[in-house]
Amino acid sequence: MSTGRANGESGVPRTASAAADAPGAGALAKPVGLIGLIGLIGLGLVGRALGARLRRAGFSVLGLDRDAAAQAAWVAEGGALAAGLRSMGAACATVVLAVYDTAGVLQVLEGDGGLLQGGAPGLLIDCSTGDPEALEALAARLAERGSALIEAPLSGSSQQIADGQATMLLGGTVDALARAAPVLDVLATRRVHVGGPGMGARAKLATNLVLGLNRAVLAEGLVFAERLGIAPQAFLDLVLATPARSDAALAKGMRMVTGDFAPQSRIRQHLKDLDLMQAAATQAGIHRLPLTALHAELLRAAVAAGDGELDNAAIVRQLRREAEGGG
Q1: Residue range 44-69, pLDDT digits in tens
Q2: Domain-by-domain residue ranges, the chain?
Q3: Cα–chain center distance at 30
Q4: How far is Cα 327 from Cα 25, in angstroms, rounded to an integer?
Q5: 6-196: CATH class
Q6: What's the pTM value of the predicted model, to 2 decimals?
Q7: In sequence order, which residues have a C-beta less than 8 Å from that of residue 50 and are 6 or more positions away?
């Protein structure tokens, strides 16, 4: 997921334009009654999956991304582009954020030429996996302007999001969730409200910890089985037929077997999540997350080996390198 850039700097032709990108317009939040036009910042794998769901449900969506290729893919899929961040802020009462991290969220909202310089949308729905403390502070600042931040990270790959099979972990007030319900109903049919601002990110980090380790264990088991003379497909069949079965094996097992690492999620993105987990653990007074620390070492080595843009299933490549002594 990439962050949006103001003023359409990507050079991709604009298929739609909102109000002029003039600074300082509309300091107070626009009321949210009818949802109206929806802004979508971040047109990577997750952003385009969310946008497709919104468009299929009949919503009008203006997208924006700093990456020209991401914008071009959005337009090729039938999406419309906003003229820039400020104009999106002026035109849209609801904005969905699908950017890489919380630094990106802060930049597109509060940075130079950011969304909030065009006005404050009444609802901001952040679907990134982020920094709990920073998001809690952001929610407080937005509340002073009359805007509500809803944390809405999704547990699942971009394909699962597109298919409506991902689970959304919600952090925000009950009132904000009620107002955002027409949009949230489309973005994810399975949702869990885990508390106020900051709690969505905390819940996502905790569940991602377990999910990532499940993938890593599956990959290590597959490499171990290969060295014992068990064919990868036979091993996967065994896992799925025994108590070792997991959703990770269902989602990523065949990709590991066939070597299909076209990204539905990326190794570098999960490494970012692991770093957030370890920072959150330190803040919570946890001395060490030993398995997560080892997982982070593996993913750092995978990124160094050039696998950072591959699907998370490609961790099996790093575990093969480790088995050969070349980790």
Answers
A1: 999 999 999 999 999 999 999 999 99
A2: 6-196, 202-323
A3: 26
A4: 54
A5: alpha beta
A6: 0.82
A7: 40, 96, 98, 127, 161, 187
Cβ atoms 94, 125 nearer than 8 A: yes
Is there a contact between 215 and 143 (Cβ–Cβ < 8 Å)? no
Tokens for 203? 């819940």
Among residues 68, 136, 82, 75, which one has the least CA distance to residue 105?
A: 136
Q: Phi, psi (5° rounding) for residue 263?
A: -75, 125
Q: Give the span between the Cα atoms of 225 and 303, in whole angstroms.
A: 25
Is a pLDDT exceeding 70 seen at residue 29? no
What is the residue-wise DSSP string for 141-160? HHHHTT-EEEE--EES-HHH
Provide the CB-side half-sphere exposure for 250 (13 A, CA): 9
Residue 114 in tokens:
């950011």
Q: Is the distance from CB of 132 to CB of 199 less than 8 angstroms?
A: yes
Residue 112 class from Cβ within 10 Å (0-12 exposed, 13-18 middle, 19+ buried)?
Answer: exposed
Q: Yes or no: is domain 202-323 CATH 1.10.1040.10?
A: yes
